[in-house]
Specification:
The chain has one domain. It is built from 9 helices and no strands. 84% of the residues lie in helices and 0% in strands. The chain is an all-alpha fold.
Length: 261
């Protein structure tokens, strides 16, 4: 192999490896959806996952959203001054947070907090042979460990996205009215008049998809981790990186489908 073709061959192997990994994840996702439709069901595990994925993620989602909304308002106002278009701050903050920044930031925060936690937890269970014990007790690990967490992600992340959207718009409102001199009633009216129902629905749909991706990837990497502490660390690192990339890719696809025209 020549010096010219060697880098191309390496790139080809990396691409094929990535495609193979995506195929395995897709198969795992299909198995998870199939398992979710048949008994036995584990409501206690679902409730525990709802608490872990949803309620305990509220602080980081709220802080991320309010600071992002405030920074977005400052940036739009600064840029709008160049064209005497400062008045568009409420509209751009609203559509930016609801359509894009809100869902994406919440998805990435869930990937950082929940995906890593799930991957580490399940990988540790595998290392300590707890998953083998479940099989010995005739309990399907996919139904007991994966389905409750994925279901919790699909149900709670859209709610977190809705909360994040509201807090993000509120952050822009506070900065605009307290620092930039906007009228409060006018700001609220412009925000309400500009947002449409498709904007809100698209945000919630993205939240459901991102929740599915984040929890599924965490479970997949945990189930397929290597042995020992190094295996747990590698699974956690790979889960966060993969979930973040897939969330951003899914966001592009969903935006193209919903607003491409």
């Amino acid at each position: 192999m020549s010096a010219v073709t060697a880098p191309l061959a390496g790139l080809g192997r990396a691409v094929l490896s990535a495609l193979a990994a995506l195929g395995r994840i897709a198969i795992y996702g299909g198995q998870t959806l199939k398992a979710a439709l048949r008994p036995p069901f584990y409501p206690r595990e679902v409730l525990s996952a709802l608490l872990q994925v949803g309620w305990l993620s509220l602080p980081v989602v709220g802080l991320t959203s309010i600071f992002t909304g405030g920074a977005l308002a400052l940036q739009i106002y600064s840029g709008g001054q160049r064209f005497s278009a400062e008045a568009v701050v409420p509209q751009i903050v609203a559509i930016g947070m609801v359509r894009e920044l809100g869902p994406v930031l919440v998805g990435l925060m869930i990937a950082a907090r929940v995906t890593s936690s799930i991957a580490a937890e399940i990988a540790t269970m595998k290392v300590t042979e707890q998953i083998d014990a479940l099989v010995t007790l005739s309990t399907n690990p996919l139904q007991y460990l994966t389905v409750p967490r994925v279901l919790a992600g699909v149900l709670t992340v859209p709610l977190l996205v809705g909360v994040g959207d509201i807090i993000g718009v509120m952050g822009g409102f506070l900065v605009s009215t307290e620092q930039l001199g906007f009228n409060r009633a006018g700001y609220i009216n412009n925000t309400v008049d500009f947002l449409t129902m498709p904007d809100i629905v698209s945000s919630l749909i993205k939240g459901a998809v991102f929740g599915f991706i984040a929890t599924l990837i965490g479970c997949y990497y945990g189930m397929n981790s290597g042995r020992g502490a190094m295996g747990v660390g590698s699974a956690t690192k790979g889960a966060v990186a993969t979930a973040s990339i897939l969330i951003l890719a899914a966001n592009f696809v969903l935006t193209s489908v919903m607003f491409g025209s």
